[in-house]
Design a protein that fits this description.
The structure holds 2 protein chains of 2 kinds. By secondary structure, chain A is α/β, with parallel strands linked by helices. Chain A contains 20 helices and 17 strands. By secondary structure, chain B is of the alpha/beta class. Chain B folds into 3 domains: about 200 residues, Rossmann fold; about 70 residues, Ubiquitin-like (UB roll); about 80 residues, NADH-ubiquinone oxidoreductase 51kDa subunit, iron-sulphur binding domain (de novo design (two linked rop proteins)), CATH 1.20.1440.230. The mean pLDDT of chain B is about 95. The chains are: A alpha/beta, B alpha/beta.
Chain lengths: ~650, ~400
Amino acid sequence: METKEEVRTPVSQQPYTVDVTEEVDGIGSKVSIEINDKKISVPLGMTILEACRENQIHIPTLCHHPDLCIAGTCRICVVELEGMHTLQTACSFPITSPLKLHTSTPMVRKARRHIVDLLLSEHYGECYSCVRNNNCELQSLAKEYGVDQYTFGHVTEPTFERDNSSPSVVRDMSKCVMCKRCVRTCIDLQEVGVLEAIDRGDQTHISTFQEKPLADVICINCGQCINRCPTGALHANDPSDDIWNAIDDTQKHVIIQTAPSPRAAIGEMFGQEPGTSYTGELNTALRRVGFDKVFDTNFTADLTIMEEGTELLLRLYKALVEKDGSMALPQFTSCSPGWVKYLEHFYPEYIDNLSSAKSPQQMFGTLIKTFYAKESGIDPKDIVTVALMPCAAKKFECNRPEMNDSGYKDVDYGLTTRELGQMIREAGIHLPEMSQSHFDQPFGDASGAGLIFGATGGVMEAAIRTVAELVTGVKAEDLFDNARVTPVRGFEGIRYLEIPIADVGPVPEILKDLIPDFEWLKGAVLKVAVAHGTANAKKIMEDIKAGGKFSECHFIEFMACPGGCLGGGGQPIPTNEEIRNKRANAIYTEEESLPVRKSHENENVTTLYDKFLTEGPCGHLSHKLLHTHYTKRGKYIA
Amino acid sequence: MEILKESKTIRTGPVLFSHYTRGEGVKKAIQLSREDILLEVKESKLKGRGGAGFPAATKWMIAAAAQSDEKYIICNADEGEPGTFKDRVLLMEYPELIFEGMVIAGYTIGASKGIVYLRGEYEYMLASLEDYLYVMRQDNLLGKNILGKDDFNFDISIRLGSGAYVCGEETALIESLEGNRGEARNRPPYPANTGFNGNPTVVNNVETLASIPHILIKGGEWYSKRGTDKSTGSKLFSVSGDCEKPGVYELPWGTSISELLSMVGAENAKAVQVGGASGICIPKGQFNRKLGYEDLPTGGSIMVFGENRDMLAVLKNFMEFFTEESCGQCTPCRIGNVKLLEGVEMIEKGNYTFKYINTLKELGQTMQLASKCGLGQSSPNSFISILDNFKDEIFHSNRSNGRSNGRRKN
């Protein structure tokens, strides 16, 4: 590098120089660059950050997130480019011509250290009393740059009131570093648009419409902002103190149900590589923590398939055979509470398309406080139901006023993967060292179909396996290779599948009272679609509104979170596509090892219909206990 | 706030304030090829008059070369730099120069739409500017097949800013025009490639555009002979502060500060702030320095400070301005300016250490190097230059420097 001039003209007032001598061909061509004097060749248009990472050169980042568009605002990733007067941000700088850059010059190190010092000066709180202690990007940067004092001071009082109005997401803006990852998540990734920067200069901060509490705006509670917040400024509304109290109360019978996605991710909280399921170990750990019973949410996922699948067949029968024009089609899944609230706000006119079947979490809560209470002879008022979910919106869902069909609050607490990981740690348990144990009966067995609910496309695959088999009478394994419905798998934002029904079988016993025959489905083509992330959901909804191809679908699975539940807002941090992929692999691999892989073959489920819900799926009692209704909320805030 | 509406042009000048017949520039332009106009502008060596000094011809060439169905010419009339009021004079008295400059630019780069981003506080001019555009349309200086030139269509609309200083920065201005929060974009890509609504866009200052018709008529060579080698032509200066004749002056580049001071009646000045709040502060000992890109570049703001001015108070005013006007997105600018202001307040109270003040100056350098846009990159200029150039006055003996004594805190 050139030595610095003694008297420097202020950078902004130096004239620009433009070097237009280099001719680069176009997309796909390579550019030769030098990073720290090492010559390398990179694809045209690659950013400096990508080029450095591919060459094992570490560049610190803060506002950058692989799921989000580039911001270039925190400035921590600055590098020095020869011939340029100012430092450039590696994250945003596309390489379009040969250049020489340096990633660790005195100027670069000093600038980065200053930036960390500045951020710390405004960041309220001490690391040891923070929910993100040891998993905070600002803390890591402070360590990386050897911060041993607050060069530019440090705030000692909170600068903002904490917003804990929402049952799902808590905003603690005193810890905000203004990276706007939450804003980009909410606007670009999810296309909800609840959060935005307001005011100017040193008053700039992230807020909501008219600075209203989060509970009063159109937040869908997906919690994706939490997953992408680098600090403790956003976190879930944590019920673990109340759960500990219930566990410690000998009068209370505390039951936890565990969803499949947390099991495939909780290992990450104990230093394990993403992509390992700890289902059996978790069961042991939960009993050690003090839960009286551990049930498998996959059981009610199977039940959901029975109810929702039956509902679909009924809707189709009424619409196509009985010509009932009031039957709303396509039917939308309703197990993602973030998606449900998104629809209630943004597309309330489509509320009738939502399946009335409750989510697996809520079905379970109701069953525990009715069927299980009766069977086990425990007064439901003494039962506390906890749901381990990968989800922030499940907290909101269990607090919906209508969710008390058992006569009590069906699910008392929604607990995220992160919060449970903390409880396990607090109990002195290292999860990966636990021995494996089984779920408790009578809800201890579940099918693989219930398990794959955790991945985007999983509900659809589970439904297809059951509906196709029940309608055609042919085994799902014979219809699809090893019962894998691969077209609905994967992370493509929107997937579409047509399933021709060549032949039909007799109506199975369990549906006999509802549908006389399946002849009307002979030769029909079942059209289904899958979307994950509300931005993709929006695309489908707009297409439906415009009368496009998706309006002709019969059944559509929507998940609010990118990747489905395994990418939920309650999952371990960090998240990115690679991690989500590994979690999905863990789920699909575990699924193939299970003896039962179709919901209608789950014996616990058939027993339940024999003993308790005797009118079968969508019968009177199941309607009372396992189905629900929704609220047209609209997007205008009073 | 009282708005000063009458213009205060003190001196007529050789270029902008010289005689011009309406329509002449456009008439000349449509007889030329686009390449000829680019060459003419290149020969003039005209540099952007907003302050950054980017060669106008280069910007036009990039936009002209870009492939796109839509291109835009944006006139940056968000004159917000403290102490600058020369664009106001041009807008009020020479709108034909600006608008024709836009038409010529549109013809040259192949744009059919022009937008004037007018400072919110200049709303009072809106009606007369709209009237002027109406007349231009009547005269076919705007509209379809301008002056009979086949397929040359160009029209201009005016949009008002809302008072954010940062929107004078070209990419923040574009964000604002698109209806977003006024925040600078990452560069590259530059607006000449990817600007308004993603289309190639030339953003030029009012004065840059107003120079264009003169350059076309009298020639790039004629223009380049004025001023100095690297700073050609003349420049409008908005002179304010402790002087007898404040106002707008058209002077050739290369004029020294002392020449300017005697012209405006401020021989006794102790300091001159060149380039507005984001510029640098020159003490008496450096008044022989010359205005121009070689030495003292400026968008035109000249603030004169007399003997009795408290330079620390001057600095505090600037830093308060930046603390408020930072767009708030990038760390160095959003928090850095607060820290610099706190430093000024520490000096004010006598509660500082030289070590910390030096740390703040280093922070200022980081801000110059690492901020996202020109605002943060230039906001420490006055902090550094005032503290360097007015040491004796500011670190005056009756302001203690609060040396630490190492005792236990109570």
